[in-house]
Design goal:
Elements: E1 2-7, H1 16-31, H2 35-47, H3 51-61, E2 77-79, H4 85-90, H5 98-119, H6 121-142, E3 149-151, H7 155-168, E4 173-180, E5 183-190, H8 191-209, H9 215-235, H10 246-250, H11 258-262, H12 266-294, H13 298-311, H14 319-331, H15 335-348, H16 353-366, H17 371-379, H18 388-411
Helix pairs in contact: 1-5, 5-6, 5-7, 6-7, 6-9, 7-8, 7-9, 8-9, 12-13, 13-14, 14-15, 15-16, 16-17, 16-18, 17-18
């Protein structure tokens, strides 16, 4: 038995879905009768002549079902019976016997560790299910004119993952164990070596069997789908192979330094990663500010936003959210903070600038008793953008501010 159990490829994510898929496959296997058992029972039930004969057969040969009423034949892929989209997915979780299950799960662990480690759980989940679903969809479509039988198992996904690993990390070693008779043999082999050996082996078996539709054909189709998916994800920039992908290796560029391959020095890469980390943190903080505004904690929200601006001057609170923040501050009579928030708004937004300058001038004049600051705010207002009512308010505020300033001067 061939068991790949680890890799020296750089990994960035835990094998969450890899472990989950192994658990689901095992649970499904032990929760229902085996496929051969189900086929035998169905065949006998179809041919038994009377109920007494059927009962005797069940007493002598049939083991009880682990889950009453669950038939694995409902989940395998029927060939030549039309399209059954649900089984395109479920057939990937059905196995023939314990050796079939163990062989597939060991491969899913070893190569899933590498593939999921590079792209994370949700992309790996889509890739895993996508390989198996597309494979069985193609098989069922091709076999529609024929009454052929059934197909099932995760072997096609295994070969798909092997092909993906060959694209993304061909020169990275897989740590493997080969169990022959009673002795285990431990060795390391590059991912491309394992992939080429497995694929060539399937081709040779096909030569030996006369190119009939066997498991080997399904394995090769799974490898082709995985290879295409691996290339597509790499070309779309959905995976970072750090200059050790198949294309870079074939071009001989993998022998160059990381800076030569990527165009970035180690310091530049570190700075880029730090900038990405800061950007993610800023976006998380901005989301918290928006939540605080929505929950009515306007003063706390603005204080958090000011701290965020000090740390990252490129972030921006959306214009509608900013206006809701200002309105909440005014409603709570937090005049000083409202003035500061309007000043901050005017530094980055222009949509309602003149109206907010009038509001700021009114607060400065009526509640803060700062006529000079109010006049400064009014001087920045563009009269061309004001309606007749706002022009009247502007003139009224200016007269009141000039009057208060004159009174303050006379008092001094």
């Amino acid at each position: 038995m061939f068991i790949p159990y680890n890799t020296d490829a750089p990994l960035y994510h835990y094998p969450i879905v890899t472990v989950l898929m192994i658990l689901i496959n095992c649970l499904v296997f032990f929760a229902m009768p085996s496929v051969p058992h189900a086929i035998e029972r169905q065949t006998y039930e179809d041919s038994a002549e009377d109920s007494t004969e059927r009962m005797l057969h069940e007493m002598l040969y049939d083991a009880p079902d682990p889950v009453e009423g669950v038939n694995p034949l409902d989940f395998v892929l029927p060939l030549g019976e039309g399209l059954t989209p649900l089984q395109w997915l479920t057939a990937n979780f059905i196995h023939n016997d314990i050796l079939h299950l163990m062989g597939n799960m060991f491969v899913i662990w070893g190569f899933g560790l590498l593939v999921e480690g590079k792209i994370g759980w949700w992309r790996y989940l889509l890739l895993y299910c996508g390989i198996g679903t597309v494979e069985y969809m193609i098989v069922q479509l091709c076999m529609m004119p024929f009454d052929f039988g059934i197909a099932y198992g995760a072997s096609t996904i295994c070969f798909g993952l092997i092909a993906v690993a060959m694209v993304w990390a061909p020169n990275n070693n897989m740590h493997c164990m080969l169990w022959l008779w009673i002795r285990p043999w431990f060795f390391e082999a590059p991912a491309y070596g394992v992939a080429v050996f497995m694929i060539v082996l399937q081709v040779l078996i096909q030569f030996a069997t006369g190119f009939s539709l066997t498991s080997e054909v399904l394995h090769l189709l799974g490898a082709a789908i995985g290879f295409g998916a691996g290339v597509a994800m790499f070309k779309l920039g959905l995976v970072d192979c750090e200059g050790w992908d198949m294309f870079t290796v074939l071009a001989g560029k993998h022998k160059k330094s990381y800076a030569e391959v990527t165009g970035r020095t180690a310091l530049e890469e570190l700075q880029r990663e730090s900038a990405d980390k800061r950007r993610r943190k800023s976006q998380e903080t901005l989301a918290k500010v928006q939540t605080l505004v929505g929950e009515g904690y306007a003063r706390v929200a603005f204080a958090a936003y000011e701290r965020l601006l000090d740390a990252d001057g490129d972030v921006r609170l959306s214009e509608p959210t900013f206006r809701r923040l200002i309105a909440a501050l005014i409603k709570s009579h937090d005049w000083t903070t409202a003035v500061d928030a309007i000043t901050c708004y005017l530094a980055t937004h222009t949509a309602h600038a003149d109206r907010l300058r009038l509001t700021q001038a009114e607060i400065l004049l009526r509640y803060e008793k700062k006529p000079a600051a109010a006049l400064k705010a009014l001087s920045d207002v563009s009269a061309l953008n004001l309606s007749d009512d706002l022009l009247a308010s502007h003139a009224k505020l200016r007269r009141a501010a000039e009057k208060l300033r004159a009174e303050e001067a006379a008092g001094d």
